[in-house]
Amino acid sequence: MTDNHDIAALIRTIPDFPKPGIQFRDITTLLLDPTGFAATVDRLAAPYVGTVDLVAAIEARGFIFGAAVAQALGVGLVLIRKDGKLPGVTVGVDYALEYGTDRVEMHEDAMVPGARVLLIDDLIATGGTALAAIRLVRQAKGEVVAAAFVIDLPDLGGAARIAEAGVAAHALVAFEGD
């Protein structure tokens, strides 16, 4: 594995899933390759060594990379989940979808004020969920140092929206189109 193009080659594209016209970027083939998976984790973690206190991972595929990155960085892991999935007392934020709203939550005691947080997910598309996660961390008085993704779909504008929110976004590979 010499560059991010190698990682891109390990990501399978499934046309017309979950509906016609969508090019689904499937990370399961990347996860099956131990060298590729390790390189992905190393490349996600490397820019943030010594700069963060926590990794916040977005449900569900973000948990895979978030847990590994947290371990690589020697920091704790915060789970950001859909409404009603966490036991105990939670805090949450609602966010708009194309038709309706959704909610993300984390445990109320997941971080101390001032914690420096790296947000992780497998893919950034429109940015709605990641922006909600940023709002949630900020509501808990944490500082989102950066948001890192394996895949960016730049045509959908999510990374740009995150940057507009004042958070640096970093992705290992980009796939044009949706």
TrEMBL record:
GO annotations of cellular component type: cytoplasm
Major location category of this protein: cytoplasm
Pfam family, one: Pribosyltran
Entry keyword Cytoplasm: yes
Phosphoribosyltransferase domain mapped to chain residues: 36-154
Entry keyword set: Cytoplasm, Glycosyltransferase, Purine salvage, Transferase
Domain of life: Bacteria
UniProt record, GO biological process: adenine salvage; AMP salvage; purine ribonucleoside salvage
HAMAP family, per the entry: Aden_phosphoribosyltr
Biological role stated in the UniProt entry: Catalyzes a salvage reaction resulting in the formation of AMP, that is energically less costly than de novo synthesis.
Protein name, per record: Adenine phosphoribosyltransferase
Organism lineage: Bacteria, Pseudomonadati, Pseudomonadota, Alphaproteobacteria, Sphingomonadales
